Design the sequence.
């Protein structure tokens, strides 16, 4: 039996930063994650992807952000249950929840913070006949290590941030890179769109809009992709790798059965403290929803900060919350 002050479901960036904010209030945290390592999507899907909207870092690799967060929370000695899925939650006391994982680990805490990102997720795959035969043989639904694509002919499909960001990142790595999108406008950040357009004008990226992949060819591995273009007609493009980046399909998994308020596969919260409809259970990061929600790591950090303030008051209603600034005492002074 593991006992802690705050049980955090999800060891992604928001869950990790919550450990720091809780530590400042002398609250202990235990994190549960179905993945075998901390960092969530940052570690599992795109550890080498640059992130540009973390304050104080003009650019930082996703994997490095996870390492920095791990170092930041180390003084507060969080504990982990990794490689196990949060399966069942029971209310076992006035202010006590008992969580059981799919492998039978039992954890008790007065407060639960759900920071499960998108929940369980899988990539959205294009409806192309025979594409499954080339998965991991030239067809990749995510980029974990850009070096895999060095000096290769790459075709990326998509119009969102991931497609734009990886087109920019791989432009100087791949031998040849082509980006196709079924529309003329993109859904990603304007700055990224402008960078891709500039790369296209400079001849570093082949940009084909109003086009989509309709077929794949090869023997033991992918050799070419058939593209249907409004302006070029049907063409066959020789490539080493095809990377369709159409986002992820989120699935809440067991969380959907916990009697929480759910809207469009996300947990409804009160923006005063990111509490759910069940007292003592909070939800932060991509897994929650509210009016004006932005799915940014930065926003998740903010949500976790306010959440632990409320959690302290929930656990210790008779104690006065005295928040101290780390610029005055330092982390070492606060953890004592």
Sequence:
């Amino acid at each position: 039996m593991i006992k802690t002050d705050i049980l955090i479901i999800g060891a992604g960036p928001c869950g990790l930063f919550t450990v720091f904010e809780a530590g400042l209030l002398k609250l202990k945290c235990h994190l549960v994650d179905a993945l075998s390592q901390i960092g969530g999507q940052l570690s599992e899907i795109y550890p080498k992807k640059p992130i540009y909207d973390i304050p104080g870092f003009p650019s930082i690799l996703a994997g490095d952000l996870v390492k920095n967060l791990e170092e930041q929370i180390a003084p507060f000695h969080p504990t982990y249950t990794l490689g196990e899925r949060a399966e069942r939650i029971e209310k076992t006391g006035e202010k006590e929840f008992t969580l059981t994982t799919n492998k039978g680990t039992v954890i008790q805490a007065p407060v639960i913070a759900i920071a499960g990102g998108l929940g369980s997720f899988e990539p959205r795959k294009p409806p192309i006949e025979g594409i499954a035969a080339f998965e991991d043989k030239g067809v990749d639904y995510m980029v974990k290590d850009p070096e895999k694509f060095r000096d290769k002919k790459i075709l990326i499909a998509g119009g969102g941030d991931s497609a734009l960001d990886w087109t920019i990142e791989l432009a100087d790595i791949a031998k040849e890179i082509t980006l196709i999108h079924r529309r003329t406008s993109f859904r990603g950040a304007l700055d990224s769109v402008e960078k891709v357009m500039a790369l296209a004008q400079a001849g570093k990226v082949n940009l084909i809009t109003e086009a989509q992949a309709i077929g794949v060819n090869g023997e033991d591995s992918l050799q070419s992709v058939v593209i249907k273009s409004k302006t070029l007609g049907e063409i066959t493009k020789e490539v080493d790798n095809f990377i369709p980046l159409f986002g992820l399909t989120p699935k809440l998994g067991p969380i959907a059965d916990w009697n929480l308020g759910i809207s469009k596969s996300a947990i409804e919260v009160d923006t005063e403290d990111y509490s759910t409809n069940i007292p003592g259970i909070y939800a932060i990061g991509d897994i929650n929803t509210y009016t004006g929600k932005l799915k940014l790591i930065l926003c998740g950090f903010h949500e976790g900060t306010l959440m632990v303030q409320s959690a302290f008051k929930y656990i210790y209603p008779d104690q006065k919350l005295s928040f101290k600034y780390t610029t005055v005492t330092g982390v070492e002074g606060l953890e004592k």
Summary: The domain at 125-244 is CATH 3.50.50.60 (FAD/NAD(P)-binding domain). The longest strand covers residues 86-93.
